[in-house]
Prior knowledge:
eight-stranded mixed sheet; 328 residues; 8 helices; binds coenzyme A; 2 domains; 24% helix
Amino acid sequence: MTERTNLRLVSEGRAGLVRLRAAMGASPTFTVVEQPTGEDVGSAAVRLPDGRPAAADLGYALHRDPHDHGLAVDTLRALTEWAFARGARRVQVRCPLDDVDQAKAVLGAGFRFEGVQRGVVATAWGDADGAVFARLPGDPGDPIPPALPDLPAGGVGDGVITLRVATAADAAALHLEHVNDEALRWALTDPLPEEETAALAARAALEWVVGTRALMAIVDDETGDVAGRVVLRPVVPPGVADVGAGLVPRFRGRRYLSRALRLVSEWAFAEGGYTRLEAGVKIGNIASAKGVEGADWKYEGRRKARLRNRDGSFGDELHYAIVHPLHR
Ligand SMILES: CC(C)(COP(=O)(O)OP(=O)(O)OC[C@H]1O[C@@H](n2cnc3c(N)ncnc32)[C@H](O)[C@@H]1OP(=O)(O)O)[C@@H](O)C(=O)NCCC(=O)NCCS
């Protein structure tokens, strides 16, 4: 059975959806028609599992400009309205982990990030992990801002190194950074397999906007090569993050750790909304301790059995922190 229905326009939005087909028990599909031009700009679908209006899965593809944020937000809002009007008690989008534009649009349409599910996104290469975002009928639906603002175009730098959000292209360097004798000596766990490091790098931009982790590549300005990584992981309470870092062996011995930590703290306090950054150093990791102190982080004491070793034992931590200038 095929049905044609014009959906009403989303208030103040640009997207109007024309419903193309809705066979009983099947997933309705739509053409996304931009208003007021009437141009066909994409397609969309709502999947109601088993035809029951419990949790509806939304999907869309904009073929004119896949990165048109406003159009994507309007499309999602119209689909959501349609699904709620048919009794959906939950509307969700499962987004590929390397698609930060979609993640931003989904947040913009008021969907809350709920986590990562394994193997939920079908791709040409097989099932991939996906970020799950959902809206319930009682949610306000207001745009949810990204957890961290974008770094300036080109990153933040000091003339010697630049920090920018990691990408899939950094995977090999990030692997080199943590699979070497010195890094393994101070590691908390066994090294990640190379493909997991690659997956982490590919999802860094998405993790940036949902706030689970801020993974940055440290780039050597002279060569343009990736010299290492620095990562901010939010801890409780909001406004506090733990910071980790490491350098590719051939870039050690140049005090890049201190440079990177200075850049990170300046950005985190001025732009990132952070009040306090913390770092833990293992007893005996002198390059790390000196690097942290060289960035003006303060030693706050020794925490017992705070850091794990690769063999599963625990050792003490030298605890360092830097706080927002207002609190110094
Ligand atoms: C920790 C790390 C990022 C520091 O790299 P870096 O910025 O190149 O540090 P450097 O080698 O320039 O050394 C920093 C300082 O420590 C000193 N240092 C380094 N190794 C030392 C040692 N074994 N004994 C004494 N001093 C040492 C350096 O002389 C330098 O001191 P200075 O600034 O007074 O001259 C790097 O060694 C690394 O990637 N290690 C493996 C991963 C790791 O441990 N990460 C930290 C986890 S918290």
